[in-house]
């Protein structure tokens, strides 16, 4: 667990002036993962994580008393929030948007008790033009995790046929997230329509395995191909974010061959040796945004 992370003296790759109050406070009490452990995790992954969280609208899951206590899903600032967590106004509706500019920003989130960082699939400079598509695979209870991996691989094959770059991460929960990097060009409606059509095509090809309908009933024994993450203002957990879940897992970018070999969605607990070993390998998402092309409808 976290003790192994502490034993690794190379933990900090990023520095911050943010001082944690109660660094020893256990945010995941069962796993003995403290606020300091969480900050150390972000310092370690920061070179990989930065391009996915800086200057993007955020939603935050806060659990100031640890994941067993009260939780808040928060999109706006609240009193006492550090100014290292930046604010802007959504020009379309005047709603406040939170974002971070640098490692101090994520350190401020940790200090604030944030246990999950969620992102929009766009940057604050191009709020109307997503730079990624996400397929969030949500299995019904009882669906074998192997079938969820097969679904991810199925999606990969179909995206390959369309010559769309594709990458995969564990959710840290029950599923996987398949991402398509985009050069910002299409708007939210176009991207969401594309994702919806794609999910419906999967359902039509294998109605026993997949559904493109959110309802619990449609999902019975199936995997919901959640395309709804692609709407304006919708969020997905950020790569490398911790999860407010049992196991203190993180959402981890992996390679397709690693997935094929049988990685569980919750395979990477924060500070665990499995996670540290994964982070010693080459960064599988390094060229994420270089791979993006504009989405062509046709
Ligand atoms: P799993 O693999 O277990 O499905 P997940 O992160 O994909 O993990 P989902 O339930 O599929 O979990 O996704 C929930 C999504 O809904 C998140 O991406 C999050 O950004 C968004 N969301 C919207 N409102 C909330 C809320 N109140 N609490 C948590 N998530 C929320
Ligand atoms: Mn999901
Ligand atoms: Mn979902």
User: Any idea of the CATH topology of the largest domain?
Assistant: DNA primase, PRIM domain
Estimated share of beta-strand residues: 15-25%
Could you say which overall geometry the principal axes of the C-alpha atoms support?
globular
Read across the widest sheet, the strand sequence of neighbours is 11-12-8-10-9-14
- Structural category is alpha+beta
Count of helical stretches: 8
Overall tally of structural domains = 2
Largest sheet: 6 strands, mixed
- Which molecules are bound besides the chains? adenosine-5'-triphosphate, manganese (II) ion
CATH superfamily heading of the largest domain = DNA primase, PRIM domain
Tally the beta strands.
Answer: 14
Radius of gyration: 19 Å
What is the level 1 CATH name of the largest domain?
Alpha Beta
Mean pLDDT equals 95
Biased composition (Low complexity): 1-15
Protein name: DNA ligase (ATP)
Region (Disordered): 1-15
GO molecular function: DNA ligase (ATP) activity
General description of the model:
The chain is an alpha+beta fold and 298 residues long. The protein has two domains: 135 residues, DNA primase, PRIM domain; 101 residues, Alpha-Beta Plaits (2-Layer Sandwich). Helix content is 29%, strand content 19%. The strands form four sheets. It has a six-stranded mixed β-sheet. A four-stranded antiparallel β-sheet has the order 4-3-7-13. Helix 2 crosses helix 3. The longest helix has 19 residues. The radius of gyration is 19 Å and the shape is globular. The N terminus is likely disordered. Bound molecules: adenosine-5'-triphosphate (ATP) and manganese (II) ion (2 copies). The site of one manganese (II) ion has 3 residues, from strand 8.
